Automatic annotation (TrEMBL):
Pfam families: Amidase. SUPFAM superfamilies: Amidase signature (AS) enzymes. Residues 28-459 form the Amidase domain. This is Amidase. It comes from Hwanghaeella grinnelliae.
Amino acid sequence: MSAFAQYESFDATALAGLVAMGEVSPGELLDAALERAAALNPKLNAVTMLQAELARENIARGLPHGPLRGVPFLLKDLGAEAVGFPGHNGSMLLKDTQYSGNSSIVDRLLKAGVVLFGRTTAPEGGVGAATEAAVYGGPTRNPWNLDRTPGGSSGGSGASVAAGIVPAAHGSDGGGSVRIPASSCGLFGFKPTRARLPDGPNSGEGWAGMAIDGFLTRSVRDTAILLDVTRGSDLGAPYVAPPMKDSFFAAAKATSRPLRVAFSTKTLTGDPIDPDCEKAVLETVKLLEAMGHHVEEELPKADTIGMMKAWTAIVACGTALWVRQVLAKKGRDLQQGDLEPVALDACRYAKTISGDAYLEAVEAVHAYGREMAAFFLNYDILVTATLAEPPAQIGRFNHSRESYVDYRLGENGIFAYSPYTAAFNATGQPAASVPLHWTEDGLPVGVHLASPFGEDEMLMTVCADLERARPWFDRRPPVCFANIMEKG
């Protein structure tokens, strides 16, 4: 018998409400999450580094009376430093890393009352659209179809939330790493404006300001609350986001004014996409038009290929940096088996990038931001697919490829598969993936929405409108706790 049989029927906001009313205890919710992790993780390989006893101790000490008090929660195993929660960070080189202090975002999550009890899997260096790091002993699988990837780099979080282990989980997004798993797993994923969330104190920025934290959730309001409890720059942050008028939660309760909506069923470079992804865009556009928005087909005129080449160079340098820093801390040279081939070649590629070439790449990213900002002078929202096709087969994007550049930019690389998301890491604009379509064989297909820099609240309201118009919360993947229990 389940510790709390109705666990999956509630989002994080509702579970916290039950705790506040005394209808369920934090310990009972933790038991339910652990029970589901034990039943589902052997199939998914999504949860790692469980710290159940520490979670129980934290409950016994007393949880803060925040808006998410008692809700079981998982941290992505990439960054998100937390005392008592070691991480592998997707890499054999970083296996069993211990942290002496919390990152700012973890402190804010704990203050909100969540119960941390483990981490979720991530690819090495966070550079992939799949989660298949060797350090976890095998690929992380999608609960909608175990032969498919849940995406990356927050793939473990996506799989854990979709399967119902937790109602919400932490992620991060430097090129689509929240939105890609959201699309792949039938979830909501929102990337806020650059610097809306803290990045310190151990880091000033990720990937020249392109990376930011985020969350994977089954409801819009859960993401809204998580963003509200974590937003705001931390001490000494190099960037500051424009101030908000109110809050994400207020925006999720509001209704949109009529907006100017552009859409495209092509990639940002004008290439065709999978028919299911095209269908998802067209259905969403019809829905937005029925809501009273002005809709027209238009593609931004911006050098997306040039931006992606610059993105690839910056991320290679970022990979080389963390590898060098870890080796210096360990006091040794790189050894065989420390890195998977993609990260190893990224370090090689980084050596070919001079200091002025790196700054040139940063300038290319900034120029792209200006080009996209000009497009958004005429539009409030841009609607595309999140990915160019449904979730990929396991193994297609593992890190065994010998060429990092080919892995990212090659004919069968990540950019061809995910041609939209990194654009808005480069520009710093808010963007979201909304689960509005499923293929005939049951695979989720996300729809991607982006808005002007700083217009997070407007975007959150549109996403909430879409959720109200076409609810998705009660859709369950084949691999979930109820099905596992039914089959015995």
